Amino acid sequence: MRHWLIKSEPETFSISDLARAPKRTTSWDGVRNYQARNFLRAMRCGDLAIFYHSNADPPAAVGIVTVVREAFPDVSAWDPGSPGHDPKASPANPVWSMVDVQLMEVFPRPLALDELRGQKSLAGMELLRRGSRLSVTPVTATEFRTIHTLAHARPAAGVAPTSRPAKKSRGN
DNA sequence: GCCAACGTTGGC
DNA sequence: GCCAACGTTGGC
User: pTM for the whole thing?
Assistant: First the structure.
């Protein structure tokens, strides 16, 4: 079994949206990057993935999903009305793929990016690499376990608050 | 809103 | 095949 991390902007689709979805299942559509697509295609039923909120305040790992249907054509790619429309895609040449994922658990508390960065055992994670933008990435079993364990632990003492320092006022 | 990092596009 | 221009991502 392999482990993954998938990103979504909560304004677009949050883990709460997934929790409300029929069968707590959704098609993970809209991936338009070849490397990320290839990772989607490598997913197998039963694989587990960390659900991560990007462009969020704070950005955070928020839960776990499992793959319940392996890669199939992303129909939104050839829908001219879809924001992910790709003129290269058609039913005969789908180009892009999606999988179905089902919600396994919403973490008891979100694991903010700051806190992930503070973990030595996660130092090698793709997510934490500078400039990393891939929306679908593999994670090791160890990284997965670390995140799962952290999410169920009390926040470590001495962890800095996740809020940013107030901006200096201009002028004067 | 800013901007660094990265992927894609297209002229040559 | 090179690479500049452009678009997107996503933390801050």
Answer: 0.89
